[in-house]
């Protein structure tokens, strides 16, 4: 049964498509953060190991939230890695165990997502989907906060 929430189906589909791209981006960022958690090397290993763990755990919650929002709109959430790699706007750089490189990569991704989400908010709001715009606003704040926290480790 399709949702009857006052938004035309065409607009629900457009919002769901945007959210599926975001779901792919969030999954790439989650995987990158998890990779850094596993492969960090340095004298502050435990601090970075725990920092990355906390970040990927929060990302996992947001990934679930994006997928659930897509379902609320009456559409299916992408769930295959192959599809994520095709949809994602974020990339996966070469492996690194260097703290500064890892942090710069993560800061860049969080800031990139903040900028992309800001545009998505305007577009879904233009579709009359205030609920998705509000959901994305919370996600925007999350990425701005994580970028700030990670930047604080850089000189």
Automatic annotation (TrEMBL):
GO terms for molecular function: ferric iron binding; oxidoreductase activity, acting on metal ions. It comes from the Bacteria. Signal peptide: none annotated. Residues 17-155 form the Ferritin/DPS domain. PROSITE patterns: DPS_2 (PS00819). InterPro entries: DPS_DNA-bd, DPS_DNA-bd_CS, Ferritin_DPS_dom. This is DNA starvation/stationary phase protection protein. It comes from Pinibacter aurantiacus. The lineage of its organism: Bacteria, Pseudomonadati, Bacteroidota, Chitinophagia, Chitinophagales.
């Amino acid at each position: 049964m399709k949702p009857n929430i006052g938004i035309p189906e065409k607009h629900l589909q457009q919002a769901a498509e945007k959210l599926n791209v975001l779901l792919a981006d969030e999954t790439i960022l989650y995987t990158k953060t998890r990779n850094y958690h596993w492969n960090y090397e340095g004298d502050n290993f435990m601090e970075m190991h725990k920092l990355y763990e906390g970040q990927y755990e929060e990302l996992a919650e947001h990934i679930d939230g994006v997928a659930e929002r897509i379902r609320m709109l009456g559409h299916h959430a992408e769930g295959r890695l192959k599809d994520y790699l095709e949809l994602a706007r974020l990339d996966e750089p070469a492996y690194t165990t260097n703290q500064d490189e890892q942090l710069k990569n993560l800061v860049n991704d969080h800031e990139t997502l903040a900028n992309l989400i800001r545009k998505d908010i305007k577009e879904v709001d233009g579709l009359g989907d205030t609920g998705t715009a509000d959901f994305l606003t919370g996600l925007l704040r999350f990425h701005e906060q994580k970028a700030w926290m990670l930047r604080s480790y850089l000189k």
